[in-house]
Structures are given as C-alpha cells and as structure tokens.
Specification:
This protein has a single domain, classed as Jelly Rolls, CATH 2.60.120. The protein has a 16-stranded mixed β-sheet that branches. The chain has four helices and 16 strands. The chain has helices spanning 2-17, 102-107, 205-211, 227-255, and strands at residues 38-43, 46-49, 57-58, 70-73, 78-83, 86-90, 94-97, 112-124, 133-136, 141-144, 148-154, 157-164, 166-170, 180-183, 186-190, 200-201. It is an alpha+beta fold. The termini are far apart.
C-alpha cells in the first residue's frame, strides 16, 4: 500500500513537471473560424492585452480575440476586427475593449464593445429583431441593428457619425431624457451630460464610396466629420454636375 502511494505521488510530480506548452490553454482556437472576433488586417503598431496576456503584446494578423481583451493602436497604427456580426476598423491611437460577458461566448459572437479612447468605424450586418449590437464610451452608449457609423472618444467627449442606417444613443444610464435617434448624415458631439440636440449634418455618400476602397472617413480633432472632408464632398458633387452638363451639351450638339 505504501509503495502504491509513493508511485501515485511520483506520477503527480511528473505531471506537474511537464512543460505547459504540451497542454495548450482551452481558449486557444484554430484561426479562420469565426468563434470569436479576429484581427484580419493590421498596419503600423497594434497591441493587445487581456485574458491571455497581462502585459501589452504586439498583435499578429489572424490573431483571435476573446472576451476581456483590449486592443490598442499606436500612432500610425490601424487594425481591422472581423466577427460574425460585422467589421470594426480602429483608427490610430485608439483603445477598444471587448467586455467579459458570458453570453458572447455562448453565442460565439461579439455584441458589445467599449471605445475608451480614439475612434472606430463600425460596419454592422443587419440583425434580427431580438438581436442588436451595442457600443459604449465613458459618457455615451448606443445600439444598432445594421449600420455603418463612427464612434470617437476624444478630448473628454463622445462623437457619433452615422453613414448608413440608424443609431440609437443615450447617456450611460439609458435615461429617457437623453435618448435620441440618429439617421444617415447626422453626427453629434457630447461633452459631458449626454444630449443630442446639436446635430452635425453631412453628406454620407462619399464616405460610403471610400469605404469600398478601404479609406476611413476623415474626422476632426473631436471625432466629427471634418469640414475639409465636407468641402471635398461638395467639390466632387459640383465636378460631377459639370460633367453631366457637358454630356448634355454634347448630346444637344449631336441632335442639331
């Protein structure tokens, strides 16, 4: 009996002495499967910290992200996160958190993120009546069911710009008197207490066109669509109208 006990102890010690690499962590998953958000494209310096890493580590393209992870783009950095419900593009100097919510794991999809700093572009697929996607900053929260929009937290305030669809926003408590609905072409800036009365108007068409060429909408220092960007939209529209007028004149000359 004594020999049996000694043998069991020796086996237990041997198991403990085996390198951890032989037994991979249970949260490691094969790349390419949309079980959790995945980094699909990076440019410049991008870092991650979370359940697997207690310190900031460089992101690798194809890396799978888990609930509780934090992604940070440095100056000149860019990261694209793909998941079942859509795509998130992170501008430079941005920090985004994927909250630790168990229901995300069960659904194998992400339903909420927090933009703690910087700016992010969201392209969310159409979702069902009972499903939605939520975002949060330090003073604003919002929900969508299939939308293209940007969210920024810069200089102590939140900015939201809607390029397609509808975004519902409120303060972080969901107070009724702060709730508002933003449609395509609307942008707002919230400094402290959430209120969405001062709507910033812009033409979303150029932004949607440029997204097809992987260009991010230009934002100013407070996260709203920049005036230079709006001026460029107007100029391009005028040029298109001029070209149409020229074509009409040519057709008239042919008829004459």
């Amino acid at each position: 009996m004594g020999k049996l006990k000694r043998s069991m102890v020796l086996v237990f010690i041997m198991i403990l002495s085996v390198p951890a690499a032989v037994y991979p962590m249970s949260d490691v998953r094969e790349p390419g499967k949309v079980f959790h958000p995945q980094i699909r494209e990076i440019r410049g310096p991008v870092m991650v910290k979370g359940v697997r890493y207690m310190i900031w580590e460089p992101v690798q393209e194809g890396m799978l992200l888990l609930s509780g992870d934090v992604v940070r783009t440095e100056k000149g950095g860019f990261a694209r996160v793909e998941f079942a419900s859509g795509v998130i593009d992170l501008y430079e100097t941005t920090v985004m958190v994927i909250p630790s919510i168990g229901i995300q794991d069960r659904k194998k999809d992400i339903r909420e993120v927090a933009v703690e700093e910087g700016s992010a572009l969201f392209d969310i697929n159409p979702l069902g009546v009972e499903r939605g996607f939520e975002f949060r900053t330090k003073n604003v929260q919002g929900g969508v069911k299939g939308t293209v929009f940007t969210v920024s937290y810069l200089e102590g305030g939140t900015s939201v710009n809607v390029y397609r669809g509808v975004v519902q926003v409120s303060d972080t408590e969901g107070s009724e008197d702060t709730k508002a609905e933003l449609v395509a072409g609307n942008g707002v800036r919230v400094e402290e207490r959430a209120h969405f009365k001062d709507v910033h108007k812009f033409d979303p068409s150029l932004a949607l066109e440029e997204l097809g060429t992987k260009k991010l909408p230009e934002l100013n220092g407070k996260g709203l669509v920049s005036e230079k960007y709006k001026d460029r939209v107007k100029k391009e529209k005028k040029d298109k109208d001029k070209d149409k007028d020229k074509d009409k004149d040519k057709d008239k000359d042919k008829d004459d």
